[in-house]
Amino acid sequence: MDSTTMVLVLALGNLALCSMLFFFDYGAPRAPALASWGLSKQVQAAAWILLALGGARVVPEPLALPGGWALLIGGVALESAALWETAHRRRLQRAMVPLALGAVFIFLVSYWIDPLGLRTLAAALILGAFYLLGAAALARGWHRASMLQRALAVVTALLALLVAARGILVLVMPDGWRWLSHDLLRQLSTIAFYLLMLVNGFGWLLLARERLQADLARLETLDLVTEAPNRRGFFNALAPWMALARRPGSPTALVVLDLDSFKRVNEGYGHPAGDVVLRHVADLCKRQLRDSDLLGRLVGGEFALLLPRTGAEEAMLVAERMRAAIEATPVKTERALISMTASFGVTTIRPDDSNVTLFGRAGAAMRAAKEAGRNAIRLAPRETVPEA
């Protein structure tokens, strides 16, 4: 396949990616990074079309070649900027614009000095550098990244080095070396561009889908009002501590708290005010916890606290701090200043516990606190069998 055909394939491939992106999540709001990436593919498609038209003598070479390569440099820089935006490094993202303008200027000067040698050297090194910057964005947070993201970072970096190698070899070996001719280098570089188009194009779409699935999985275990684990998320986190309770070691405490008269808040002030109360209480409770502790919202105004390596007496002190903080800190809503209290039930995980017996015991202690006048704390008796 000759170079003109390969350039045409690159042009059509980028256009196909643009059309796929247009229909990807059609009608849904687009993230800024996705919009920037789509624009980069459009610019790259225009660049390859211009280069293909120049190779086919449809557009004069003095216009097609510098214009096409300048557009390609800008498009790859935009792609790198979109990757840095996805990596939440806005400073590096914004730096891509002046870098791209400077790179285009250097390329045009090189083209004016030497339309063949320096042009090839500048284009290969500049494009390889921008692709490497994109690979660095993909590699950021390597230990937390998925295998797909890691693979994309490695493959992009290798192909970027292959693109840059053409410019380096032209510089150090102007006449080629044995079988490694300039024509072969050009073909290998074009193949690298083709693979980069496929890897970055389909890789981006797969990454977007992977992140969407991860967000959906996270939402299944997260309470959106308080941003604490919901019932399912809390039980998932509790499971390993239930297993550890069967072995000798430090105790693990469970605290169940229920906001007193929370129903009247929703009925009297509306559910938006109730959500404000829930967020306020969750924030107060989190301030009293260690990094290893966990707060979860079970249902309505009921929360649960998991306190690893904590005995009953220590858990009572934690509950008392929370009770006092909730009582002393009214909640400011749009309609009123609402005073709240909470009742607490405290227990520790036993070796023979199940979720039913554990929460039954803590719930019974919490109901005893309510029967004692609310705004109180009760410790579940050790010798009694809890009601389910």
Automatic annotation (TrEMBL):
<dbReference type="InterPro" id="IPR050469">
    <property type="entry name" value="Diguanylate_Cyclase"/>
</dbReference>
<dbReference type="GO" id="GO:0052621">
    <property type="term" value="F:diguanylate cyclase activity"/>
</dbReference>
<feature type="transmembrane region" description="Helical">
    <location>
        <begin position="191"/>
        <end position="208"/>
    </location>
</feature>
<dbReference type="InterPro" id="IPR000160">
    <property type="entry name" value="GGDEF_dom"/>
</dbReference>
<keyword id="KW-1133">Transmembrane helix</keyword>
<feature type="transmembrane region" description="Helical">
    <location>
        <begin position="66"/>
        <end position="84"/>
    </location>
</feature>
<protein>
    <recommendedName>
        <fullName>diguanylate cyclase</fullName>
        <ecNumber>2.7.7.65</ecNumber>
    </recommendedName>
</protein>
<keyword id="KW-0812">Transmembrane</keyword>
<dbReference type="InterPro" id="IPR043128">
    <property type="entry name" value="Rev_trsase/Diguanyl_cyclase"/>
</dbReference>
<feature type="transmembrane region" description="Helical">
    <location>
        <begin position="6"/>
        <end position="24"/>
    </location>
</feature>
<feature type="transmembrane region" description="Helical">
    <location>
        <begin position="151"/>
        <end position="171"/>
    </location>
</feature>
<dbReference type="InterPro" id="IPR029787">
    <property type="entry name" value="Nucleotide_cyclase"/>
</dbReference>
<feature type="transmembrane region" description="Helical">
    <location>
        <begin position="119"/>
        <end position="139"/>
    </location>
</feature>
<keyword id="KW-0472">Membrane</keyword>
<feature type="domain" description="GGDEF">
    <location>
        <begin position="250"/>
        <end position="382"/>
    </location>
</feature>
<dbReference type="Pfam" id="PF00990">
    <property type="entry name" value="GGDEF"/>
</dbReference>
<feature type="transmembrane region" description="Helical">
    <location>
        <begin position="96"/>
        <end position="113"/>
    </location>
</feature>
